[in-house]
Amino acid sequence: MWAKMQWGAYFAMVALQNSSGGIAGTLSYYLGPRFNVPHGIAGAVFIGKVTRKNHELGYHSYADLYPCLNSYDASLTDRKMQSDKVVTE
């Protein structure tokens, strides 16, 4: 039985490493069992700070989400500025 649990833990780790969950998901895994916080809510606590930090470090692909904003302006074409709008609104 113990060996099967070890294999289960191993395969769970492999799955998590390949899921690209990111730091917000990783931090929420800690909060869930430790403080009984649902995984989605715990992830939501961190996602804003994580996206802003990624943007500051040069990741501007959040611009792909810019057309989804209520404040979408088709005349704004600079991807860095679009990304900034997404992470600050």
Structure description:
There is one protein chain. The chain is mostly helical and 89 residues long. The protein has four helices and no strands. The longest helix is centred in the middle third of the chain and has 18 residues, at 39-56. The radius of gyration is 18 Å and the shape is elongated. 10% of the residues are buried. The mean pLDDT is 89.
Oligomer: single chain
Tally of separate helices: 4
Q: What summary fits the major beta sheet?
A: none
Distance between the termini: 50 Å
Strand content: under 5%
Radius of gyration: 18 Å
Class by alpha and beta content: mainly alpha
Shape: elongated
Q: How many strand segments?
A: 0
Return residue spans where pLDDT drops below 50 for at least 5 consecutive residues: none
Query: Mean pLDDT, rounded to whole units?
Result: 89
Summarize this structure briefly:
With 89 residues, the protein is mainly alpha-helical. Helix content is 65%, strand content 0%.
Strand and helix map with partners:
Elements: H1 2-17, H2 22-35, H3 39-56, H4 79-88
Helix pairs in contact: 2-3, 3-4
Which labels suit this protein?
65% helix, elongated, 89 residues, mainly alpha
